[in-house]
C-alpha cells in the first residue's frame, strides 16, 4: 500500500443548507480494491457518494482521484476522469430507450469499444437485452437498477461507485451482480467503492470496509474483520437476511 | 501549518484569477457594448443617417465592468464563501425574531390602509392622485391578479399562460352588462367572478390531460382566442374600439362619484369637489378585493382542497393513489383562480371606464406569470413584493427625471423602462433562483412550524 | 373486525388476469386469491409482472383481460378493473405504496398524512364551502385527522420528524412514511411494493413488526411484493410466485421456498446456508447438449450469465399455459424445472428426489424447509456445465467423485479451511463431511474434483473463480513451512 490510493477522501464535510450531513469523513480506496461502505439509514452514505461527484460540494476537506484534486471540479469533468456512478434512486433517463441509456453512459474516448461493452452489459443482464428498445421509464424497478449499473459500466470506469446496487433486485440477480463485481475486479482490475444495506454480502465481497454513523466513519477494516466484529454484527447484520 | 501555506499560495492565485476574470469580463462587455454603446445611429439636419462614435462612453463602461469583476472576485466572493461556511459552522441558532419581523405582515397591511392618507398629507389632494391611482391601484391590481394566478400556478402547479383571458371575461362582463342594463357594480362583481370561473372550468376540461409545455401552449392559445373573439364579435363587444362609458362604482348606492349625480360625494358630505375621492375609494376597493383573495387563499390552503392542490403539484400519481379525484381538484383550481381574475377584471373596467382588447394582450399574462415566478411560487408575501418591484418599479421609472443629469438631457427614462425591467428580472433570478420567498409555509404542524426549503418543493409539471 | 357477512371470502380474487404492453405480455392469465386478515406475498424475478399486477389492482392500468374482485369489509363487492384509480382507494379501500417512492417531498410528514385523509376531510368541510367560512364540523374533523396522523407517525417511528419535509428523510424512513400515509386512508387492503428495499437487516426486522402489527390490529389485509426473503418468509401467510407473468407456485412460505421451480427461477441456492442440494435440473441447453452429444470438455463458464444462451428478441405465445412470454427458448427457469420433472417421472432412475427424498447428505443445519429441495437448480445460468451435466445425468446419491478424501483429519486436527477466501464455516463443515480436511487436499484438486465439489456445495464456477486451489496451495506451503520450523524447535 505504499502507492497513493486511487481515491482519497480527507476530512470532507458536506452540508445541506445548514445541516451537516458529513462531518469530516476520511476514506481511501486503493487501486484494484473493492471497498464497501455500510451504515444505518441516513448515515450519509449516499451523500458521500454524491460529494465525490461534487454534487453537493464538500465545504471542507479534499477529495483526490488518481492524484488530481477533484474537490472543486465541475461534476462533468470529474466524470471524464473515468469515475462512474450508479446513484441512489437509479436516475436513468426515463424517455430514452435502454440502448440509448447505455449510449449515454459510454464515454466518448472509448467509442470504439461501444459494441463490445454493450454486449458485455447484456451478457451480465440478459433481461436488458430482452427489453432493449423499451423506454427506461417503463422498465420494472429491478430492470431499471440493472440499467443504472450497466450504464455506469459503459463508461469503462477506473473507479466504479455503486449506491446500493442490490436494491430491488431478485436474490438470484443480487448474487450474480456480486459475482460479476468480483469478476470485473479480478479480470479487469476494476476498483469498486460500494454502499450496501446488505452488509453481509457487501463485506463478504469487499477487501475492506468502512462503517459510517451520523456522517462520520467510525470503523474500518478488512471485510472479514468487520464481519466478525460483534458491534458491526449487532448493528448491521443481525435481524434476518444473511 | 499546511493550512496557512495553502492560504498564502491561495491568495496570490486568487489575485491572478481576479485579473484573469476581470480581463474576460472586459472582453465580453466590449463585445456586447461595442455596437450597443460605441456606435450610435442618428439623423443629421438633412435627414441623413449618420453614425456617431462614442468611444469614451464605451471605454468607461468596459472599465467599470472590469473593475467590478476584479473587486468581486478578489473580495466579495471570498467573503461570501467565508460567510456561508461560518453560517454552516455555527449551529443555526433560531435567532429570536424581532417584534417587527414577527408581525410585519400586520404592519404591511396597516401601512396599505393608511397609504392614501399619507399621500394626501404629503402631496396634497391633487398631488396624491398620481401616487394613489397610477401607483397604488395599479400595483394592487397586479397583486390581486398574481395572487389569483398563484392558486393555479403556485399551488396546483398548472402553468397557465392565458390568465389574462379571465381578466378580460371579468372586465367585459361588467362593461357590457353595466352599460347595457345599468346594473350596479355590486351585483356585477360576483357575476363577473362567476362568469370567469365558468370559463375557467371550460378551459380546464380540455387541458386536464395535458401537462407541462403542452398545457402552457394550450392556455396561451385560449387567452388569444378570447381576445380574438372580443375583437371580432363586434355586435356585442364593439370590437377593437372597445366599450366606453362604463358606469362608476357607487358606495353601495349611498353616495357616488358622478359630479352630475345628486348623491355626489362632495354634495353629500359638503366638501370640495375633486376626482381624488373616487380614486381613493377605488384604492380601498381593490385593497379589500386583494385581501379577500389572500384570505381565501390562506384558508383554502388549510382545507383539504388546498392541500390537494399542493399535493398535485408534488406528485399527481401519488394523489390518485390516495383517492383524490385529480380532475375535480384541477378544475377547482382553474375555477377559483379564474374567479379572482374575473373580480379584478370587473374592477379594472370600473376604474378605467373603458375597456378594449388592447388591455388583454399576451404580454399581460406574461407579466402576471413573471410576478408569480419572481415572488416565489405559492408565497403571498413574495408575490406582493414582486408585484411592487415590477409594476411599481416600472411606474417609478417614469419619475426618474434626475437620470437626465447623468445620461444627458436627451435621456428619456420611459424608453429604458422595459430594458431595466428585464435586467432587474435577470438579476433577481440569479440572486434568488426560486423567487423572493422560496420557502414554503406548512399548512399544519404538530410541534413547531418550520418553513420547508425550496430544495424539496416541486414546481409541478403543468 | 366488523360483522362482515362473509368473513371467509377472500378479500381479493384475481381471475384470469392478463396485461399486454404492445407485443409484451406482462401478465398472462394469472389467478390467485388473497385471504382476509392475512399477508399475501407476491414474489418473482425482476420484470415478472408483480408491479404490473399492483397497477391493475389499483386501477393505474386497465387489464387487457380478466377480473379483479375485492370483497369489502361490509360485504360490498367491487370489480376493480372497472373502477377509475382514485375511486378504488376512496370506495373500495385499497391503498398502495410505490416501488420508486412517491411522497409529497415538499410537504411535511404531517401534511403528507393529512392529504391521505382528503376524502374524509372534504366531506367534513362541506366540500370546501362550509369549511371556508368555518361552519360545520370541519374543525373537529381536522383535529381527528391530526390524531390519526399522529397515531401512524408513532407507529412508523417518525413522530419526531413530523414537521420536517418528507424529502429530507433518509430512504428507509421515507419507505415507512409511505406505509403510514397509505394506512391513513384506512384501507381494507394494503398493497406494498418492496417496502424493505433499501433497509438494512435490522430495519427490515422493524418493518416486519410494523406489518404484523397492521395485520393484527387494524383489520387490514396486506398484499406484499418483496425481494427480501427475510421479510417474505417470516411474515407472510401465503406466497404467490410469478415468472414471466405466469404463476409458477402458490402456497405457504415453506412449500414455496422448497419448490424447485421457485428456486430455479428466483431464489437460487444460498451458497453457504442452504443444505446441499444436488442438481436435478440443469440448464435446458445443457440437457439438450447432453441428449445430443455429451461434451466432456465443457469447463466452467467465464462469466456468470454467459450461459443464458443466445437471446432472440422474439416474443412468442405458447398455448400450453395460456399466454406467456418466451423471449428465449430457455428463458423460463421454472419451465425447465417442469420439463425436467416430467422427464424424471418418466425415467425413475434419473431422479430419486423430486419429492421429499432424503438429502444425500445428512442435514447438518435445521434451516426450516431449506433441506427439502432435492433439486439443484441453483442459478442454472451459472452452473459450470460439466458439473451440471454430470449431476443431471446421474442419480444424485452417487456422485462421490472427489479423488482424495480422507476418513478423518490427519493427526485429528483439520486445517482452518475458512482461511481460503470463499469458504465460510458452513462450507468448511460440508467439506469436512466429504472428507476434505486439509489445504493440501484442496491444492491437489483436479478439474473433475472441482466440479464434483461444486456439485456438493451447490456452487457454480465459484471455486475456480475464487481460485480455491491456488489459495490452498499457498496455505498448504505456509502450513508445511510452519510445521517444519515448529519441528525444528
Ligand atoms: N437533499 C437533501 N437536503 C437536505 N438533507 C438531506 C438531503 N439528502 C439527504 N439529506 C439528509 O442527510 C442525511 C444523510 O442522508 P443520506 O441520503 O446520505 O443517507 P444514507 O446513508 O445514504 O441513507 P440511506 O441508507 O437511507 O440511503 C440524512 O439525515 C438526510 O435526511
Ligand atoms: N408501461 C409499460 N410499457 C411496456 N412494458 C412495460 C410497462 N410496464 C412494465 N413493462 C414491462 O413489463 C414487465 C413487468 O414489469 P413489472 O414492473 O410488473 O415487473 P416486476 O415484477 O415489478 O419487477 P421488479 O421486481 O423488477 O420490480 C417488465 O419487463 C417491464 O419492462
Ligand atoms: Mg442512501
Ligand atoms: Mg416492481
UniProtKB/TrEMBL annotation, chain A:
Protein name (record): ABC transporter ATP-binding protein
GO biological process: L-amino acid transport
Transmembrane segments: none
GO molecular function: ATP binding; ATP hydrolysis activity; branched-chain amino acid transmembrane transporter activity
Pfam families named in the record: ABC_tran
Domain ABC transporter as annotated: residue spans: 7-239
SUPFAM superfamilies hit by this protein: P-loop containing nucleoside triphosphate hydrolases
Recorded family membership: Belongs to the ABC transporter superfamily.
Keywords: Amino-acid transport, ATP-binding, Nucleotide-binding, Transport
Record-linked SMART domains: AAA
Superkingdom of source: Bacteria
Automatic annotation (TrEMBL), chain B:
Transmembrane feature ranges: 12-35, 55-75, 107-129, 135-153, 183-207, 214-233, 239-259, 280-300, 331-349, 361-394, 414-431
Localization: Cell membrane
UniProt entry keywords in alphabetical sequence: Cell membrane, Membrane, Transmembrane, Transmembrane helix
Leader sequence residues: none
Keyword RNA-binding: no
High-affinity branched-chain amino acid transport system permease LivHM N-terminal domain ranges (all copies): 18-114
One GO location term (cellular component): plasma membrane
GO molecular function, one term: branched-chain amino acid transmembrane transporter activity
Membrane topology: Multi-pass membrane protein
Chief site of localization: membrane
Gene name linked to the record: livM
PANTHER family per record: HIGH-AFFINITY BRANCHED-CHAIN AMINO ACID TRANSPORT SYSTEM PERMEASE, HIGH-AFFINITY BRANCHED-CHAIN AMINO ACID TRANSPORT SYSTEM PERMEASE PROTEIN LIVM
Name used for this protein in its record: High-affinity branched-chain amino acid ABC transporter permease LivM
UniProtKB/TrEMBL annotation, chain C:
Organismal lineage: Bacteria, Pseudomonadati, Pseudomonadota, Alphaproteobacteria, Hyphomicrobiales
Region (Disordered): 291-416
Cross-referenced InterPro entries: AAA+_ATPase, ABC_AA/LPS_Transport, ABC_transporter-like_ATP-bd, BCA_ABC_TP_C, P-loop_NTPase
Keyword annotations from UniProtKB, A to Z: Amino-acid transport, ATP-binding, Nucleotide-binding, Transport
Molecular function via GO: ATP binding; ATP hydrolysis activity; L-isoleucine transmembrane transporter activity; L-phenylalanine transmembrane transporter activity; L-valine transmembrane transporter activity
CDD domains noted in UniProt: ABC_Mj1267_LivG_branched
This protein's name: ATP-binding cassette domain-containing protein
Segments of skewed composition (Low complexity): 342-394
Protein family per UniProt: Belongs to the ABC transporter superfamily.
GO BP: any one term: D-alanine transmembrane transport
Superkingdom field: Bacteria
Gene Ontology CC: one annotated term: plasma membrane
PANTHER family given in the database record: CONSERVED COMPONENT OF ABC TRANSPORTER FOR NATURAL AMINO ACIDS-RELATED, HIGH-AFFINITY BRANCHED-CHAIN AMINO ACID TRANSPORT ATP-BINDING PROTEIN LIVG
Record-annotated ABC transporter domain positions: 12-269
Amino acid at each position: 500500500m505504499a502507492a497513493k490510493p486511487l481515491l482519497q477522501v480527507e476530512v470532507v464535510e458536506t452540508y445541506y443548507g445548514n445541516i451537516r450531513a458529513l462531518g469530516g469523513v476520511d476514506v481511501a480506496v486503493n487501486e484494484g480494491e473493492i471497498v464497501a461502505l455500510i451504515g444505518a439509514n441516513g448515515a450519509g452514505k449516499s451523500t458521500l457518494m454524491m460529494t465525490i461527484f461534487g454534487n453537493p460540494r464538500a465545504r471542507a476537506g479534499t477529495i483526490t482521484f488518481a492524484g488530481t484534486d477533484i474537490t472543486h471540479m465541475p461534476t462533468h469533468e470529474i466524470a471524464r476522469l473515468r469515475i462512474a456512478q450508479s446513484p441512489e434512486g437509479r436516475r436513468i433517463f426515463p424517455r430514452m430507450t435502454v440502448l440509448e441509456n447505455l449510449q449515454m453512459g459510454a464515454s466518448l474516448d472509448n467509442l470504439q469499444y461501444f459494441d463490445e461493452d454493450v454486449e458485455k452489459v447484456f451478457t451480465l443482464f440478459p433481461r436488458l437485452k430482452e427489453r432493449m428498445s423499451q423506454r427506461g421509464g417503463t422498465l420494472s424497478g429491478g430492470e431499471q437498477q440493472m440499467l443504472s449499473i450497466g450504464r455506469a459500466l459503459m463508461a469503462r470506469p477506473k473507479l466504479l461507485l455503486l449506491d446500493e446496487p442490490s436494491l430491488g433486485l431478485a436474490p438470484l440477480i443480487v448474487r450474480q451482480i456480486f459475482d460479476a463485481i468480483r469478476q470485473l475486479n479480478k479480470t479487469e482490475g476494476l476498483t469498486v467503492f460500494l454502499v450496501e444495506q446488505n452488509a453481509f454480502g457487501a463485506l463478504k465481497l469487499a477487501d475492506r470496509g468502512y462503517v459510517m454513523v451520523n456522517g462520520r466513519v467510525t470503523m474500518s477494516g478488512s471485510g472479514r474483520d468487520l464481519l466478525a466484529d460483534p458491534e458491526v454484527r449487532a448493528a448491521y447484520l443481525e435481524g434476518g437476511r444473511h | 501549518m499546511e493550512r496557512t501555506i495553502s492560504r498564502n499560495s491561495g491568495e496570490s492565485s486568487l489575485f491572478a484569477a481576479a485579473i484573469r476574470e476581470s480581463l474576460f469580463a472586459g472582453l465580453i462587455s466590449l463585445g456586447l457594448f461595442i455596437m450597443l454603446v460605441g456606435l450610435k445611429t442618428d439623423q443629421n439636419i438633412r435627414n441623413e443617417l449618420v453614425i456617431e462614435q462614442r468611444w469614451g462612453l464605451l471605454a468607461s463602461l468596459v472599465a467599470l465592468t472590469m473593475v467590478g469583476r476584479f473587486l468581486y472576485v478578489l473580495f466579495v466572493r471570498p467573503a461570501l464563501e467565508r460567510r456561508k461556511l461560518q453560517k454552516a459552522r455555527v449551529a443555526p441558532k433560531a435567532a429570536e425574531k424581532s417584534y417587527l419581523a414577527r408581525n410585519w405582515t400586520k404592519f404591511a397591511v396597516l401601512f396599505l390602509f393608511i397609504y392614501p392618507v399619507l399621500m394626501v398629507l404629503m402631496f396634497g389632494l391633487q398631488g396624491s392622485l398620481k401616487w394613489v391611482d397610477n401607483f397604488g391601484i395599479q400595483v394592487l391590481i397586479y397583486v390581486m391578479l398574481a395572487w389569483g394566478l398563484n392558486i393555479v400556478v403556485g399551488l396546483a402547479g398548472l402553468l397557465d399562460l392565458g390568465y389574462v383571458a379571465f381578466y378580460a371575461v371579468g372586465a367585459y362582463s361588467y362593461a357590457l352588462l353595466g352599460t347595457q342594463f345599468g346594473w350596479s357594480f355590486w351585483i356585477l362583481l360576483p357575476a363577473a367572478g362567476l362568469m370567469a370561473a365558468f370559463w375557467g372550468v371550460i378551459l380546464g376540461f380540455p387541458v386536464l390531460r395535458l401537462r407541462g409545455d403542452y398545457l402552457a401552449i394550450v392556455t396561451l392559445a385560449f387567452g388569444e382566442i378570447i381576445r380574438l373573439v372580443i375583437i371580432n364579435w363586434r355586435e356585442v363587444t364593439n370590437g377593437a374600439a372597445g366599450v366606453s362609458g362604463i358606469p362608476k362604482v357607487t358606495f353601495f348606492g349611498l353616495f357616488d362619484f358622478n359630479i352630475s349625480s345628486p348623491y355626489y360625494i362632495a354634495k353629500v358630505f359638503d366638501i370640495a369637489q375633486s376626482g381624488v375621492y373616487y380614486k381613493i375609494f377605488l384604492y380601498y376597493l381593490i385593497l379589500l378585493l386583494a385581501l379577500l383573495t389572500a384570505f381565501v387563499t390562506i384558508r383554502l390552503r388549510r382545507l383539504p382542497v388546498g392541500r390537494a392542490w399542493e399535493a398535485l403539484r408534488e406528485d399527481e400519481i401519488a394523489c390518485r393513489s390516495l383517492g383524490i379525484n385529480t380532475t375535480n381538484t384541477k378544475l377547482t383550481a382553474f375555477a377559483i383562480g379564474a374567479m379572482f381574475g374575473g373580480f379584478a377584471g370587473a374592477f379594472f373596467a370600473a376604474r378605467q371606464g373603458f375597456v378594449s382588447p388592447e388591455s388583454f394582450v399576451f404580454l399581460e399574462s406574461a407579466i402576471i406569470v413573471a410576478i408569480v415566478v419572481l415572488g416565489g411560487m405559492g408565497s403571498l408575501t413574495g408575490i406582493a413584493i414582486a408585484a411592487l418591484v415590477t409594476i411599481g418599479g416600472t411606474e417609478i421609472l417614469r419619475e426618474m427625471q434626475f437620470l437626465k443629469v447623468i445620461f444627458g438631457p436627451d435621456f428619456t427614462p420611459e424608453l429604458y423602462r422595459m430594458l431595466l425591467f428585464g435586467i432587474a428580472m435577470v438579476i433577481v433570478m440569479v440572486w434568488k433562483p426560486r423567487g423572493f420567498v422560496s420557502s414554503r409555509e406548512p399548512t399544519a404542524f404538530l410541534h413547531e412550524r418550520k418553513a420547508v426549503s425550496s430544495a424539496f418543493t416541486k414546481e409541478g409539471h403543468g | 373486525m366488523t360483522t362482515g357477512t362473509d368473513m371467509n371470502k377472500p378479500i381479493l380474487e384475481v381471475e384470469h388476469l392478463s396485461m399486454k404492453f404492445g407485443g409484451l405480455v406482462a401478465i398472462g392469465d394469472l389467478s390467485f386469491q388473497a385471504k382476509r386478515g392475512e399477508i399475501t406475498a407476491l414474489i418473482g424475478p425482476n420484470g415478472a409482472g408483480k408491479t404490473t399486477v399492483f397497477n391493475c389492482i389499483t386501477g393505474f392500468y386497465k387489464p387487457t383481460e380478466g377480473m379483479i374482485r375485492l370483497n369489502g369489509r361490509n360485504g360490498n363487492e367491487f370489480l376493480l378493473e372497472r373502477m377509475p384509480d382514485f375511486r378504488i382507494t376512496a370506495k373500495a379501500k385499497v391503498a398502495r405504496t410505490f416501488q420508486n417512492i412517491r411522497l409529497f417531498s415538499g410537504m411535511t410528514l404531517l401534511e403528507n398524512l393529512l392529504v391521505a385523509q382528503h376524502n374524509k376531510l372534504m366531506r367534513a368541510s362541506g366540500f370546501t364551502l362550509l369549511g371556508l367560512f368555518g361552519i360545520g364540523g370541519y374543525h373537529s374533523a381536522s383535529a381527528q385527522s391530526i390524531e390519526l396522523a399522529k397515531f401512524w407517525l408513532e407507529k412508523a417511528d417518525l413522530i419526531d420528524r413530523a414537521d420536517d419535509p418528507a424529502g429530507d428523510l433518509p430512504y428507509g424512513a421515507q419507505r415507512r412514511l409511505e406505509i403510514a400515509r397509505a394506512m391513513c386512508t384506512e384501507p381494507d387492503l394494503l398493497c406494498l411494493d418492496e417496502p424493505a428495499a433499501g433497509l438494512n437487516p435490522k430495519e427490515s426486522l422493524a418493518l416486519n413488526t410494523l406489518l404484523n402489527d397492521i395485520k393484527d390490529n387494524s383489520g387490514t389485509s396486506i398484499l406484499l411484493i418483496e425481494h427480501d426473503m427475510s421479510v417474505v418468509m417470516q411474515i407472510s401467510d401465503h406466497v404467490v410466485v410469478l415468472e414471466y407473468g405466469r404463476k409458477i407456485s402458490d402456497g405457504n412460505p415453506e412449500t414455496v421456498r422448497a419448490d424447485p421451480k421457485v428456486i430455479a427461477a428466483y431464489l437460487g441456492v444460498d451458497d453457504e446456508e442452504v443444505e446441499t442440494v444436488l442438481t436435478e435440473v440443469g440448464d435446458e441447453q445443457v440437457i439438450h447438449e447432453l441428449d445430443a452429444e455429451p461434451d466432456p470438455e465443457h469447463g466452467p463458464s467465464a462469466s456468470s450469465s454467459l450461459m443464458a444462451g443466445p437471446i432472440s428478441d422474439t416474443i412468442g405465445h405458447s398455448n400450453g399455459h395460456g399466454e406467456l412470454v418466451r423471449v428465449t427458448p430457455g428463458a423460463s427457469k421454472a419451465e425447465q424445472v417442469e420439463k425436467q420433472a416430467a422427464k424424471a417421472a418418466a425415467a425413475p432412475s434419473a431422479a430419486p428426489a423430486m419429492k421429499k427424498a432424503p438429502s444425500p447428505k445428512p442435514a447438518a443445519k435445521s434451516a426450516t424447509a431449506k433441506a427439502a429441495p432435492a433439486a439443484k437448480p441453483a442459478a442454472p445460468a451459472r452452473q459450470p456445465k460439466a458439473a451440471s451435466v454430470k449431476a443431471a445425468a446421474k442419480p444424485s446419491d452417487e456422485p462421490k467423485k472427489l479423488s482424495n478424501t480422507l476418513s478423518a483429519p490427519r493427526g485429528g486436527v483439520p486445517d482452518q479451511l475458512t482461511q481460503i477466501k470463499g469458504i465460510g464455516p458452513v462450507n468448511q463443515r460440508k467439506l469436512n463431511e466429504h472428507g476434505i480436511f486439509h489445504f493440501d487436499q484442496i491444492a491437489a484438486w483436479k478439474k473433475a474434483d472441482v466440479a464434483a465439489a461444486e456439485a456438493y456445495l451447490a456452487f457454480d464456477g465459484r471455486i475456480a473463480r475464487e481460485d480455491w486451489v491456488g489459495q490452498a496451495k499457498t496455505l498448504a506451503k505456509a502450513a508445511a513451512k510452519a510445521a517444519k520450523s515448529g519441528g525444528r524447535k
